[in-house]
User: Which sequence fits this backbone?
C-alpha cells in the first residue's frame, strides 16, 4: 500500500483555518482510473480561496515537526459565516497540475508512464487518483512543469474567444491584461486574427504586451485613459469584456466607453442608448471591493460572473476536447507558463512565502512540487 | 388641412431645455395609416427623460401667450454632454395614449371611429398619425382614459412573467412593488399562479399589496428585511428579479439572498457558489445613484438592463399580439390604471405641476388630455 503526502485545508467553525500536510493512503485505481505521481502543481489565484478562505494570514503560524505539520490562522468573526458549507472538513486543494502516470486501472493502460496534465481539485498531493478522462496526455518531450498549467489559464483564455463567437461579438476587451492569462490571450488573438483591447495599470505592463505584439493597449493610470479606451473600442468594435479586477468602476468605465462609441452618431432622443448588447463578464476578484455601476450606458447592457466549468459544460464534451488538444499542441508556445519559484510542501506552508504568493505581484508565479523533499 | 397642437422638447447645445407647444399640420394618412384624435396621454416615469433630460426644473420658467408657449430650464454644464444626440432638435414626446380614429388611409378603414390605444412616442399631441398596426382597438365600452395606459405598464408586467418562463426561472421578485405596474404584476401572477415576491419600502405599501391578495411582501424598511427576503425566496424558489430602483445595494441584496437559499445545504468548498443562475434585470432608475454589487453570491449571476421594445422584438410579432389582446380584454380589471389628475397642455407645462409629477409620489398619476381647452 502506497502512502502519499497531501495538503488539506480545514476552516473550523470556531473561527480558524487549519492547513495541514497529512499522510494519506493512495487507493488502487478503479476501472478507467489512473494514479498520477505529481511533479508540478501551480499556485493559481483561483487556489487562494479554497486554500485560505478569508483567514487573516498576517497572523498565520506554522508548526512543522515529524508529528504535526499544520499552518493555523484566525478567521475574523464577521467572515466566518460565509464558510458554513466547509466547516470542520479537511478538504483537498490544488486546481491543476501535472505528473507521471504510475498505475492504471482497467481500460486505462494506454496512459501508463505518460506525463499528463490534470484538473482535479486535489493536485496538492503526491499522488492523485483520477479518471483517465480528465487527464491531458502531454506530447513526448513536454515536461510536467511545462504542462502544469494546461487547464485553468489556457482554457479560460480560449473560453473568452469562444464566448465572444458564441454570443455574437466581434472583438474583446481584457483587464489585468499583462497576467499570464492575458499573455496567452494575446497570443491566441494574434494567431486567430481576433482584435483584443488590453487594459493594464502601468507602463511596465504596456511594454510587456507591446513586446508580445499586442496592438491595442490602454493604460488606466494614464491621463488619457478614458479617451484611449474609447479610441480602442472604436477601432475594434469590441462589445464584450472579460474583467479580472471585479471591484471599483472598471466594468462601468468599459460599458460607458462602449456606449460612447455605439451612440456616437445617434440622432434624436436616444433615451435608452444603442440597441447593441454591451456585456462585461467578471471572472476574477483581484479587488474584492464592490463593483460600482453608474448605468450611464443606456439599457442594453449586462454584467455577470463567468466561470470556466460552466463554459465547458455549455460548449460540451467534444468542443472542450478540441480546445484541450490545442493546449497540448501549443503548450511550449501559446500556452507557455513560466514559474518564478518551485516550492516544497513545507515552503508552500511557510507564512513568509505564503505572503509572497498571496500578494499576486506581477510576474510572480509559484508552483509546488509535491514530490520534492520537504 | 387640419392644424393640431403638439408638445415638443428641445435641448439646446448652449445648455437649456425648451419645451414648446406648437401648431403642426396634421398629415393625410398614408396607406395603412390612421389619424387618432388623442384624448388621454399618461405621464409615465419613462416620459420624464425624453421631456426634460437632466434639466434643472427648479429653475424652470413658463411663457404662455398667444404667440409663444414655451417652458425653459437650464441644463447643468456637466450633464449637457449626455444629450449630444438630441441637440437643437424639436422632438415629439409622449410614449403612449388613447383616442379616437378620425381619419383612415387606404386599407385601414376598419378602425374608423374606433377608440384605440397606441404607443407612438408622439402622444402629447392633439392628432397622431400612426400605422394602424401599432393601434390597439379597445373593446366597445372602454373609454380612451381607461385605455390610455395599454402599452407601457401592461406589456412590461406581462413581459416580466414571459421573461421568467423564457429563461427558465420559476418565480419572480419585483421591487418598488406597490407601483401601478407592481399592482398589475400582482394581478397577473395571482391569475396565472406565478409566485411573486414584492419588495416595498414602507408599511403603507405592504397594506396596499395585501389588499390586492399578494402573498409574499417584504418591507425593506423593516428590521427583519434580509431575513424576510431570504424566507420569501426560500418559499418561492425565485431566481429572477425585476428592479425598478437601480441605484444602491438592492440588486446586490437580492442576489445575496438568492445565493443564501441556493447554497443553504452546500457541503465542501463551494468556492463559486451554487450553479443556478441568479439574475436581476434593472428596468427603471428611480434612484440614479450607482448600482453597488458586493459580489458575495458566487460566480453564477447576472445583472443587466431590461427594455420593453427589446423584449417585444425577442418574442416576435405573433406572441406580442397575444399579449396585447389580453391587455384589451382585461383593461378594466388586471390592467386598470387610475389617474389622480387630468391636465391640459398648459397645466402640463406649468412648473408647479411639473414639480408634482416629476416627484413620483406614490399614487400620483397624471395624464394629459391634448384636446382639452388650455
Assistant:
Amino acid at each position: 500500500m502506497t502512502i502519499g503526502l497531501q495538503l488539506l485545508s480545514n476552516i473550523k467553525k470556531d473561527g480558524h483555518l487549519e492547513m495541514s500536510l497529512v499522510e494519506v493512503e493512495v487507493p488502487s485505481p478503479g476501472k478507467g482510473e489512473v494514479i498520477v505521481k505529481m511533479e508540478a502543481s501551480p499556485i493559481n489565484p483561483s487556489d487562494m480561496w479554497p486554500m485560505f478562505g478569508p483567514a487573516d494570514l498576517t497572523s498565520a503560524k506554522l508548526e512543522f515537526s515529524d508529528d504535526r505539520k499544520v499552518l493555523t490562522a484566525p478567521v475574523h468573526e464577521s467572515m466566518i459565516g460565509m464558510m458554513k458549507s466547509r466547516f470542520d472538513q479537511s478538504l483537498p486543494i490544488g486546481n491543476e497540475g501535472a505528473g507521471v502516470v504510475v498505475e492504471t486501472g482497467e481500460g486505462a493502460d494506454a496512459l501508463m508512464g505518460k506525463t499528463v496534465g490534470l484538473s482535479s481539485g486535489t493536485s496538492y498531493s503526491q499522488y492523485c487518483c483520477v479518471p483517465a478522462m480528465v487527464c491531458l496526455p502531454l506530447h513526448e518531450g513536454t515536461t510536467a512543469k511545462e504542462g502544469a498549467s494546461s487547464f485553468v489559464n489556457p482554457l479560460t483564455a480560449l473560453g473568452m474567444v469562444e464566448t465572444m463567437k458564441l454570443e455574437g461579438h466581434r472583438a474583446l476587451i481584457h483587464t489585468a491584461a499583462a497576467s499570464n492569462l492575458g499573455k496567452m490571450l494575446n497570443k491566441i488573438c494574434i494567431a486567430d486574427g481576433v482584435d483584443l483591447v488590453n487594459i493594464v495599470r502601468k507602463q511596465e505592463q504596456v511594454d510587456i504586451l507591446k513586446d508580445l505584439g499586442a496592438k491595442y493597449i490602454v493604460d488606466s493610470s494614464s491621463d488619457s485613459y478614458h479617451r484611449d479606451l474609447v479610441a480602442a473600442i472604436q477601432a475594434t468594435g469590441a462589445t464584450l469584456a472579460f474583467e479580472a479586477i471585479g471591484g471599483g468602476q472598471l466594468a462601468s468605465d468599459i460599458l460607458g466607453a462602449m456606449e460612447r462609441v455605439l451612440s456616437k452618431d445617434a440622432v434624436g432622443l436616444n433615451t435608452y442608448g444603442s440597441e447593441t448588447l454591451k456585456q462585461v463578464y467578471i471572472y476574477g476578484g483581484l479587488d474584492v471591493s464592490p463593483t460600482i455601476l453608474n448605468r450611464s450606458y443606456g439599457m442594453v447592457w449586462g454584467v455577470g460572473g463567468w466561470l470556466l466549468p460552466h463554459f465547458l459544460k455549455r460548449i460540451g464534451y467534444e468542443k472542450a476536447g478540441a480546445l484541450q488538444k490545442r493546449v497540448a499542441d501549443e503548450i511550449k508556445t501559446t500556452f507557455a507558463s513560466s514559474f518564478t519559484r518551485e516550492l516544497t510542501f513545507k515552503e508552500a506552508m511557510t507564512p513568509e512565502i505564503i505572503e509572497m504568493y498571496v500578494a499576486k505581484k506581477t510576474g510572480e508565479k509559484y508552483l509546488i512540487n509535491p514530490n520534492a523533499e520537504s
